[in-house]
Amino acid sequence: MTLRDRAEGVAYRAAWRLVQRLPERAAYGAFDRVARTMHRRNGRSVQRMRDNYALVRPELDQARLDALVAQGVASYLRYWCDAFRLPRETPATLDARIRLTGHDAAARAIVERGEPLILFLGHLGNWDHCGAWATHHFAPVTTVAERLEPASVFDAFVDFRESLGMRILPLTGGDNAYPQLRQAVARGGFVPLLADRDLTRSGVEVTLCGHRTRAAAGPARLALETGAALFPLAITYEPIQGRSAHRVVARFGARVTVPADGSDAERVRAMTQQCVDDLGETIRARTQDWHMMQKAFVTPRDPR
Fold first, then answer.
1. So what's the pLDDT on residue 138?
2. How many Å apart are CA 58 and CA 53, to the nearest integer?
3. What is the tens place of the pLDDT at every residue in 242-256?
4. Which of 43, 56, 202, 221 could form a disulfide with 209 if both were Cys (CB 3.0 to 4.6 A apart)?
């Protein structure tokens, strides 16, 4: 680890402790100010968010699109404030700040029978809050995380998430995560996976909001090979009257059906498309909670 990496890790942990100690209004107010500055500076990540939003919301003119991007950056910074303050939460406060909708009863019934459950998540809302809540109220969570730089920051996030009861497998730089996910499923585990962006270059091409994209094949492949139930899960925010913090809304889509015919690759693609179609409805309705600041769509010039 370089001296710079170590210094960044120390600064990150210090900021983490400070945000936890601040009153709620002061903490979220500070992150709102950072969001406004970030939007005004219009860096590469904000420009990428604007490009993605423009594709899923083509009806917006430039002024309305820019206003939506400002909301998106604010939602993204809200997620980070939530994450920094998550160690303050208890099972009771986690429960008070989440609302389940959609086909959650079907998902609960599967978990209550002791059967495994796989979730296809998008970069929507606050998935860390859902993971922490699920560990206390649903079932033990095993998931995969993309490595952050510097390594000390990634290690801090892994330590933090595991302190909440989640098991975190690194996407790269460690043992192959897929066999460990299969083991978690075999034990009746709860496996939520961020999958609306392909990080491995081995994903499947599907259509999101009318545009070509590559999504991770892992959730569908895992469900197909193990027989476990697969559900799409869309996570958004809603205001809480009188508070700076927001409530997390977790909407379960319908259980994904496994096609009766076709090769395994064709069935994985069809199952992934079902998940993406469901998430696409939320992405269009709550675009500001889609924190997609990386390339999300395949263009004709894309060499893949």
1. 83
2. 8
3. 999 999 999 999 999
4. 56
